[in-house]
Specification:
Layout (H helix, E strand, L loop, with lengths): L1 H7 L3 H11 L4 E7 L2 E7 L33 E2 L2 H4 L8 E10 L4 E10 L13 H9 L1
Antiparallel strand pairs: 1-2, 1-5, 3-4, 4-5
Helix pairs in contact: 1-2
């Protein structure tokens, strides 16, 4: 993402959005400021998050540590229960988080989800017949 920013002389946010949009991995980019999520960009197959714009950053996030502008963290394992909607947990094998510090209290958080085998995932596994019918109509 930083390479796109430098090569094409675009903002880090524009580079990050393009990187997320055209990447084949299962990624999300969250923009945060002063401990709150400002915006979320994600690939189509990225699992549903338990947080939304305006929500506080999850308690165990690397982004709660102070990063100086331009400082980039390692990509570390993250707590899936903090980030994902409970219904999505069965599809995800792992989650990695990386943070880029920005000026004025901003940070960019990249989440990379490692997805399980799609053939093993059954969203209707724990549903009643009535719930399955409603799910299929939705």
């Amino acid at each position: 993402m930083l390479e796109i920013h430098q090569t094409f002389d675009v903002s880090k946010y524009a580079a990050a959005r393009a990187y997320i949009e055209y990447n084949s991995e299962c990624l999300a980019l969250l923009v945060a400021r002063h401990g709150k999520i400002q915006a979320i960009y994600k690939t189509r197959d990225f699992p549903r998050l338990a947080i939304a714009a305006g929500d506080p950053i999850p308690n165990n996030s690397l982004a709660l540590s102070r990063f100086s502008p331009g400082a980039l963290s390692d990509s570390d394992p993250a707590d899936m229960h903090e980030w994902f909607d409970i219904d999505e947990l069965s599809r995800v094998r792992g989650l990695y988080e990386q943070v880029l510090g920005q000026a004025n209290g901003f940070s960019m958080i990249q989440l990379k989800a490692l997805m399980g085998d799609p053939d093993e995932y059954d969203p209707e596994a724990d549903m009643t017949s009535k719930e399955r019918l409603a799910y299929r109509r939705w």
